[in-house]
Write a structure and sequence with these properties.
The chain has helices at residues 7-13, 22-41, 43-51, 59-63, 79-94, 117-144, 150-157, and strands spanning 65-69, 72-76, 97-100, 103-106. The protein has 173 residues and is mainly α. Helix 3 (43-51) packs antiparallel against helix 7. The protein is elongated. The relative contact order is 0.15.
């Protein structure tokens, strides 16, 4: 699977430390893409985006840009920033857990103590709320840019779409 965001790019958006464990981070990025981003973008546009990651036309969507909507200037942060929020909401819940042949174990730091699970859930919820706010602006940008992204328009308004409007969902973790 193509990850929209690499662990190195992720460091520009979130503080995940200097030592990157790509074997642990890449599956979480993939999970965030599939469970959160794909739901928001819809299948057709999600796969269109994956196939156009290097297309210069898609770079403003991926990296963020300014746009005008009904005479007001907006800034959307980009799909990569949105995906980093989704990633972080999952990462904080999984970072201190290692899976061994003997079962799941929790890392214990030498110089500190492990954060309370409820605190980690709160951080995860905050990241999902931030993602929801970012998504609303990105969706506005996509709606303004239907000529640039025809698969977004077809995905939302085409014959394959359902009558239900997509909305951001909050999940209790």
């Amino acid at each position: 699977m193509n990850n929209i965001l690499t662990p190195t790019q992720l460091q520009a958006y979130k503080d995940i430390g200097n030592k990157i464990d790509e074997k642990k981070i890449n599956p979480i990025i993939e999970q965030a893409q599939i469970t959160e981003l794909k739901v928001n973008l819809g299948d057709r546009f999600y796969f269109d985006l994956l196939n156009n990651l290097t297309n210069p036309t898609y770079q403003p969507l991926l990296d963020g840009c300014d746009f005008n909507y009904f005479g007001v200037n907006y800034h959307q942060d980009g799909i990569k920033a949105l995906l980093s929020d989704y990633f972080m909401s999952k990462y904080v819940l999984q970072i201190n857990t290692n899976f061994t042949p003997f079962g799941a174990t929790t890392k214990t730091p030498q110089d500190g103590e492990i954060a309370d699970r409820n605190s980690l859930k709160d951080i995860s919820t905050q990241q999902l709320q931030l993602a929801g706010a970012r998504w609303e602006i990105i969706k506005m940008y996509l709606n303004v840019s239907t000529s640039t992204f025809p698969n977004w328009h077809n995905n939302v308004y085409g014959s394959d779409s359902t009558d239900v409007e997509r909305t951001f969902r909050f999940r209790k973790i």
